[in-house]
């Protein structure tokens, strides 16, 4: 996953969204189907803002399901790709670490695949939640799906060895070697990803990071911004094993596994 703040060489996946979809395929639109199911279960209205929309495939699925969708991303390359390849939604440039897309304009804000965790500092998390609250109509929902910081307490399986993945696209074979490390001081999961390709191009090294957010910390942050937490659990979800399915079990209550799923409601102004 790309980071807009990545230093050094250009970011292969952000600059080439078609590679992003080749590396992280979701042909069955599982993430978008899970999101639509959450929105329906909680009776969300039709207007959806998908923050960190990436290639726009989830936003387009929600649009096809009858919703009025705005996809927002900080990457102009992602936005251009979304407009060309996944039309239907409106696509706008916005930084989730503080944005203003109007007051009460949306019935739901979705933020999938750890996009929320690009808020690295407490100030950025506060700005994200204040922006979401402004964007939501009273009763509106915040739906997020992300890595779980608590997973790394006492577990090192994701940290021990680099993860190597290969895939072919457009006649070229790409190989990525990903190393994760925990920065305990910054409370970040730092990622180094080295890309090689068999087309003669030079290797590219990318650096990015996710905030390690803990479930109880998230509850406290949401409460301090006036949100009611309706669901916070580790699955099933679109990136859990086994994955969510329409006829599968309902959400659990544990927050132990490596993915968190959040549904929170903006209750609107308090009545006197
Ligand atoms: C995991 S990716 C895309 C997820 C997308 N929903 C999908 O599955 O195709 C995360 C996205 O967040 C975007 N992003 C990163 N930092 C951002 C920021 N500060 N504001 C808005 N978008 C950001 C990236 O450009 C990227 O498109």
From TrEMBL:
Residues 48-140 form the Methyltransferase domain. The keyword S-adenosyl-L-methionine applies. SUPFAM superfamilies: S-adenosyl-L-methionine-dependent methyltransferases. GO terms for molecular function: methyltransferase activity. The keyword Cytoplasm does not apply. InterPro entries: Methyltransf_25 (IPR041698), SAM-dependent_MTases_sf (IPR029063). GO terms for biological process: methylation. Residues 232-272 are annotated as: Disordered. Keywords: Methyltransferase, S-adenosyl-L-methionine, Transferase. It comes from the Bacteria. This is Class I SAM-dependent methyltransferase.
């Amino acid at each position: 996953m790309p980071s807009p703040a990545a230093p050094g060489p250009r970011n292969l996946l952000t600059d080439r969204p078609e590679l992003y979809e080749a590396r992280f395929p979701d042909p069955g639109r599982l993430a978008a189907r899970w999101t639509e199911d959450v929105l329906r279960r909680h009776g969300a209205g039709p207007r959806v803002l998908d923050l960190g929309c990436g290639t726009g495939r989830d936003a387009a699925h929600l649009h096809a399901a009858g919703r009025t969708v705005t996809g927002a991303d900080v990457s102009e390359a992602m936005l251009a790709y979304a407009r060309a390849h996944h039309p239907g939604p409106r696509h706008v440039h916005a930084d989730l670490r503080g944005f203003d897309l109007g007051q009460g304009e949306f019935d739901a804000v979705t933020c999938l695949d750890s996009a929320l965790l690009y808020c690295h500092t407490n100030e950025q998390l506060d700005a994200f939640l204040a922006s979401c609250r402004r964007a939501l109509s009273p009763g509106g929902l915040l739906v997020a799906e992300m890595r779980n910081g608590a997973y790394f307490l006492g577990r090192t399986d994701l940290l021990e060895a680099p993860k190597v993945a290969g895939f072919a696209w457009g006649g070229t074979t790409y190989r990525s070697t990903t190393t994760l490390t925990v920065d305990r001081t910054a409370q970040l999961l730092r990622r180094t990803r080295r890309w090689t390709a068999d087309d003669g191009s030079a290797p590219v090294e990318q650096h990015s990071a996710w905030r390690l957010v803990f479930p109880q910390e998230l509850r406290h942050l949401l409460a301090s911004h006036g949100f009611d937490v309706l669901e916070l659990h580790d699955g099933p979800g679109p990136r859990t094993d086994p994955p969510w399915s329409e006829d599968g079990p309902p959400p659990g209550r544990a927050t132990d596994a490596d993915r968190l799923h959040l549904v929170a409601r903006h209750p609107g102004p308090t009545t006197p």
